[in-house]
Amino acid sequence: MRLTIRLFLFLTIFCAYVNGANLVEFRLYDATHGVELASGDTIYTADVNLVPVHYELRIYIENDVPLGSMSLGILSDSPDDLSINWLPQPDGWGTGGQNAGFAAVTVNPDCRFDPDLYGSFDLTGLLINENDVNSIPPDSILMGGAALFNSLPAGDLDLFFSIHFSLEGDNLGTVASLLFDSTTIPPAGDWIFANTDGITFTPGFSGQINFPVQVLCVDHDGDGVCGPLDNCPDTWNPDQIDIDNNGVGDMCQFACGDVNQDDGVNIGDVLYIIDYLFKSGPPPPIVKHADVDCSDVVNISDAVYLMNFIFNSGPVPCASCPL
In what helix (H) or strand (E) does residue 94 lie, and over which residues does it extend? Predict the structure, then answer.
């Protein structure tokens, strides 16, 4: 699988233009370990605890004159079987503004661009248009905005944006590759800085950055089974029980409360628990799905809980269980 992700940033602010040197630079930051990485450093899909590593593609900008607008096409490419998982952030931006959409883009709160400091997007707010942001190539992100009163002030190289993600691959133990580069994205075209009169110039670029990626086990749900091998990759099921052998673990195929695994929570599940407790019936295929009141033991209280849910609109099964 060839992964190509294009991120298009279109940022518009109003000001005057004077010729000068301008620069855009990419850096990769390991947010899990607090380390900035150099191009060529080996990076990893997971840490020693099998937890996905949180990375940031950091975008630095230097401008020695106030800017009117800029258009930046960013390419992330992997010829190997890597996928990018976007990581929503509490203060992130997505479709519709801050804390909306996939919210994986953050603005450095101390930079010259920060909307809270300079009102750079006081007309519409930071806008992001997401196109198939699902780790399947190609993905693209369109960011934009316009200011009524404030320009982007001139200044030295400064961190403006971070795009948050993690990596995952199916071929465990292999070394894949990841590339970030500039690119042309129609209809915006090549990288452009411009003023409000429409006069454009091309910013400098520090160059592409490349990283070998060691594909390690990523255990999303903490059950000790690697994602590609886990039949419930997002649900804790260390026993990997799959009674019907359909490749989907019973823990995520059947809902909590569906004790008899008939694809529904109904009176049959209540009778299954009663039969098990008082008539030497078979144990629940998944004990956790019968412990609907989250007491760590299956007893008559679970049957009463289900009756209350089914007939009295009571709380849903396992509502109070820890994740």
Answer: strand 93-94
Amino acid type, 119? G
Which residue in the block uniquely carries the two structure tokens 């091309």? 202
Rounded CA separation 125/221 (Å)? 36
Residue 82: HSE in the Cβ half-sphere, 13 Å Cα cutoff? 29
Please report, for residues 14, 93, 277, the alpha-carbon distance to residue 8 in angstroms, rounded to integers and kept in the order given: 20, 14, 60
pTM to 2 decimals? Answer: 0.70
pLDDT in tens, 142-168: 666 665 666 778 889 999 889 999 998
Backbone phi and psi for residue 281, each to the nearest 5 degrees, phi listed first: -75, 175
Q: What are phi and psi of 310, to 5 degrees?
A: -70, -40
Tokens representing residue 99 in the block: 């804390």
Q: What is the 3-state secondary structure (H, E, C) of 36-64?
A: EECCCCCEECECCCCCECCEEEEEEEEEC
Q: What 3-state class would DSSP assign to 185?
A: strand
- Residue 49 neighbours by CB under 8 Å, 6+ apart: none
